[in-house]
Amino acid sequence: MGTRDPRVDAYISNAAPFAQPILATIRETVHASCPDVEEAMKWSFPHFLYKGMLCSMASFKQHAAFGFWKGSLVTGGPRSADAMGHFGRLTKSSDLPSKKVLAGYIKKAALLNEQGVKEPRAKRKPAPKAPTIPGDLSAAFKKSKKAQAGFDALSPSHKREYLEWITEAKGAETRARRLAQAIEWMAEGKSRNWKYERRS
After folding, report:
1. pLDDT at residue 122 greater than cutoff 80
2. I need a labelling partner for 120 at 20 to 30 A (CA). Which of 101, 151, 174, 189 fits?
3. Which domain holds residue 186?
C-alpha cells in the first residue's frame, strides 16, 4: 500500500486556487495507477516514488507542471520548452492528458523502475579543438620557453584571446608589435586582458 505525505496536502492547499484541482487530479491519478507509490517532498515540491523516482508536480504563480523522472522513455518526447515537466504550462485540469492516457504513462514509468531501466544519457558535446598556433608565435615560443609555459598555463578562452588579437592585426607591423607584447605578457604569466581583471 502506498503512503501519503501530509506535506503534500499542505502544498496543494497553499497552491493558487487554479492549481489546486490540477495537483489533486495528478495526485489521485498517480495513486490509482500505482497503488504502492510513496509521496515525498524534494526540492520543495511533491515527488512520487516507486522503486526510485517516478514523477513530480509543482505549482507556480500562473501555471502548474507535471513530469516524469524518465520522461523521454515514458512520453517519447523531451521536456516541455516553456515549463518544467512534460506537459507544458498547466492552467486548468483539461490541460492534462485524459486520465486514461495519464494512467498509461504512470504505469509505464512504474514498469521502467521495476525493470531497472535507466534513461539514456545525453551525448556529450565534443571537446573544442585545440587552437592553431600561427608560425610566427611558434617561432617566438622557441626563443622564450617562459612565454610558452605562460601560454600553456592559460585557460582555453585566454589562449583564444591572445591568438585572435595577434592574427586579427591588419598590417605586418601591427602584428609584430602585438606578438612582441604578447610574448612579454605571457612570460609574466598574464592573460591578454590582465589590466581589466579584478585583483583579489
Report:
1. no
2. 101
3. 135-194
Structural domain ending residue among the three candidates 85, 114, 143? 114
Q: Give the separation between CA 62 and CA 13, rounded to whole angstroms.
A: 16
User: Which of 114, 145, 168 corresponds to the end of one domain?
Assistant: 114
123 in a domain, yes or no? no
Same domain (yes/no): 70, 160: no
Indicate if the pLDDT at residue 77 is higher than 70: no
Give mean pLDDT, residues 42-67.
92
187 grid coordinates: 612570460
For the record, the C-alpha cell of 45 comes out as 515540491
- Local confidence band at 2 (pLDDT 50, 70, 90 cut-offs): confident
Q: Are residues 56 and 106 in the same domain?
A: yes
Cα distance between residue 63 and residue 23, in whole Å: 11
CA distance 87 to 46: 16
The reply to whether 130 falls in a domain is no
Instruction: Mean pLDDT check: name the lowest of 10-19, 87-96, 127-136.
Output: 127-136
Domain count, the chain: 2
